[in-house]
Amino acid sequence: MTASAAASINRQIRLASRPAGLPTNENWRLTEEAVPAASELADGELLVKTLALSLDPAMRGWMNEGKSYIPPVGIDEVMRAGGIGRVVASKHPAFAVGDEVSAILGVQEFARFGANDARRAALFKIDRRLGTATQWLNVLGMPGMTAYFGLLDVGQPKAGNTVVVSGAAGAVGQTVGQLAKIKGCRVVGIAGGKAKCDWVVSELGFDACIDYKAGPSAVRDGLKQSCPDGVDVYFDNVGGEILDLVLTRLARGARIVICGAISQYNNESGTAVAGPKNYLSLLVNRARMEGMVVFDYAARYPEAIAELAGYLADGRMKSKEDVVTGGVSVFPEALLKLFSGENFGKLVLEVDG
Amino acid sequence: MTASAAASINRQIRLASRPAGLPTNENWRLTEEAVPAASELADGELLVKTLALSLDPAMRGWMNEGKSYIPPVGIDEVMRAGGIGRVVASKHPAFAVGDEVSAILGVQEFARFGANDARRAALFKIDRRLGTATQWLNVLGMPGMTAYFGLLDVGQPKAGNTVVVSGAAGAVGQTVGQLAKIKGCRVVGIAGGKAKCDWVVSELGFDACIDYKAGPSAVRDGLKQSCPDGVDVYFDNVGGEILDLVLTRLARGARIVICGAISQYNNESGTAVAGPKNYLSLLVNRARMEGMVVFDYAARYPEAIAELAGYLADGRMKSKEDVVTGGVSVFPEALLKLFSGENFGKLVLEVDG
Question: Which positions fall inside the Enoyl reductase (ER) domain (chains A, B) (predicted)?
Answer without folding.
Answer: 21-349
